[in-house]
Amino acid sequence: MDWTEVSIITSSEAVEAVSNILMEDGATGVSIEDAKDFDKLKAGRYGRHGEIVDPASLTHVATGAIVSAYFPNNKNIQTKVPEITKRVQQLSSFGLNPGPAEVTTNAVEDENWRTAWEKYYHPVSITRMLTVVPSWEDYQPKTDFEKIIRLDPGMAFGTGTHPTTQLSLQALEIVMHGGESVLDVGTGSGVLSIAAKLMGAGNVQAFDVDDVAVKSAKKNIDLNPAAKDIQISANDLLKGIHEHVDIVVANILAEIIVPLVPQAFANLKVGGYFLTSGIINDKYDLVKQAMVDGGFQVLESMKMKDWYAIIAQKPKDEE
Q1: Residue ranges at the known binding site
Q2: Which of 175, 192, 189, 178 is nearest to 130 (CA)?
Q3: Closest CA relative to residue 122, chosen from 65, 176, 160, 76
């Protein structure tokens, strides 16, 4: 299968809003080249073999940012480019500088997929315990308690680099103690399911409506032997699923979280946790109210840049 890379030249301040536009059109993750990120870097081990490199010598954008996402050609993304361009330009009405707002597309052959990702994707420490590492990197744990999630971004992103994924992983680390049963809804790359297993989860089931994502997640599970018993299948949210689990986790768009709320409530044990992310700033109140109306108690809200995650619980006095 071949792919279409959609890249948007924008400003640093509009990166999160532009990322959200691409995600709403079907991307489950994005890559970001931001000039401000390089402004903060000092000389460090950025070379492919761990050698010291001066950030000034690295090839990067000089100003603004480029936000990119990859779509399979069967998504008809070319027809959406005019609308994507319009939405990016309209960010100025929300007080954001859209920058040049130039949207370009580029065909990427399947065999060049890894090459397209290697320039963006490097080991990322997400929490004190979890580090996400691309499958082609020779990376060894720095401490005894560091746990490595090996991923190939493949066709359904969720590489750990986006704030929504990082928030989800942090939320899992907060509530997990070991032995929990978990449902991962909209699994994408499978990163959350794999992380749950590494943190000691018992039975983990992962679902995604996209068959491409399911295949990608299965490949990533194979890269992580500790996660080999994760059960994964195609499904529309939790329709037709009748379980009794400790945790339901979903890193999906806010509009999709809302119809998931009653399904999650029905599949959770009393006292079970509902962890959600993918909630852009202006949709936070919508999701929080849907959870409260659905019977959940909101325990904690977490924020990274313009994104929220919510830790909610099925009340312990619920019969």
Answers
A1: 165, 186, 208, 251
A2: 192
A3: 160
3-class DSSP state for residue 9?
A: strand
As averages over each run of 10 residues, the pLDDT of the chain (319 residues) reads 84 86 76 68 44 47 81 80 94 90 84 62 82 85 90 61 86 96 93 96 94 85 95 95 97 91 98 94 93 97 91 82
DSSP state of 225: G
Angstrom CA distances, 296 to 27, 37, 69, 240, 250, stand at: 29, 38, 34, 21, 15
Binding-site members for S-adenosyl-L-methionine are 165, 186, 208, 251
- The amino acid at 198: L
What is the set of domains in the chain, with CATH numbers? Answer: 3-118 (3.30.70.2170), 124-313 (3.40.50.150)
First to last CA, the chain: 49
